Amino acid sequence: MNSVFLERDKTLLVEITEEIDHHVADILRRKIDEDITRYMPRKVIFDFNKVSFMDSAGIGMVIGRYKMVNMIGGVTQMKNVRTSIKKIFEMSGVSKIIPIIDSCA
């Protein structure tokens, strides 16, 4: 995972660089929580460009970060979501609360 905080926009961009299963979700959760606490961003954008697999642990990780950001008055978005991952977000209802700002095939 790579994360970049854009000071001007108060945006935390989180590029997830691997498949998300239970083990990876725990690691991502800790790292993203540290970044949110450190930077207090107004917006968090998850970039799923390199994610080809995600299970329910990934859904939980995303929803948990959404709640955390929401509590500090920020917004969460997702981008570069592949069709297979987008279907998971649609079936679980996640895409109804966290907008997908663009997708990839």
Compact overview of the structure:
The protein is about 45% helix and about 20% strand. It is α/β, with parallel strands linked by helices and about 100 residues long. The chain has a single domain, classed as STAS domain (Transcription Regulator spoIIAA, 2-Layer Sandwich), CATH 3.30.750.24.
Number of domains: 1
Percent in helix: 40-55%
Total E-strand runs: 4
Strand content: 15-25%
The SSE string, one letter per element, is EEHEHEHH
Continuous helix count: 4
**How widely separated are the two ends?**
21 Å
Main beta sheet: strand number and arrangement? Answer: 4 strands, mixed
In CATH, the topology is named Transcription Regulator spoIIAA
Strand arrangement, major sheet: 1-2-3-4
User: Assembly type of the shown chains?
Assistant: single chain
Walk me through this protein's architecture.
This protein has 105 residues and is of the alpha/beta class. It has a single domain (2-97), classed as Transcription Regulator spoIIAA. 46% of the residues lie in helices and 19% in strands. It is built from four helices and four strands. It has a four-stranded mixed sheet with strand order 1-2-3-4. β1 and β2 form a beta hairpin. The longest helix is centred in the first third of the chain and has 18 residues, at 22-39. The protein is globular and about 35 Å long. The two termini are 21 Å apart.
